[in-house]
Sequence to fold (278 residues):
Amino acid sequence: MHYGVLIFPTEYSIRIDELARAAEERGFESLFVTEHTHIPVSRRTPFPSGGELPREYSHTLDPFVALTAAAAATRTLKVGTGICLIIEHDPITTAKSVASLDLLSNGRFLFGIGAGWNAEEMENHGTAFKTRFRLLRERVLAMKEIWTKDAAAFHGEFVNFDPIWSWPKPVQKPHPPILLGGESGHTLERVVDFCDGWFPRGRAADKILPGLADLKARAARAGRDMTTISVSVFGATADEAVLATYAEARITRAILRLPSEPREAILPLLDRYAKLIR
Fold:
């Protein structure tokens, strides 16, 4: 099992390039960053975890810019979004951002995606909460066309464009792995349908092993080889017994969370995590 770390990258936390170098030096496989383009002041949508929305949600750096800096500072570390809110991004420009980052990182990008929970945030991007998953599916399928075709076209309910030319193409073929966040049966069905990996949250630990069994059953019914579907636990509990259970279940990677704090707090925590994973 591989081990990664994740952070809400902000202007007040450790610099992302320094964090990337430190993670690589300590033997971590990957670094993931979160995304919110903004947080509406209205706060109409409650925070799913309850209580006040943490400060870092409205301070996150642009994920593609941050990961480009992380990739430039390292040689082997994989860099990923955890998650990119596809429902808030134009698929043509996002396809180019993904392909550019995959090219500049020499094929080290992991594309974690999701549909989000903040209704007013996505409404500011013209996305309706009720149809966000249908929109997500079409945008992913449209990006796959752009990544894999010289002249790509797509005509759907939400995404429509006649043949276009768009380079660069990703280094990874046919494209960077697409990892879908969530824990529901609907999520698992979408993973089998149009994604390359399942991206459950560590706080839903009681759903991960049963979900893995369900995912295998769904993949078998669809004729999908499970060796083509990864499982990455996002925000895994930093506990030796829990991580051993994941490793025994042949989960692909466990991603440990770092707080949005300066280097003085992060580097010692990275050292403790490094001892844990060894």
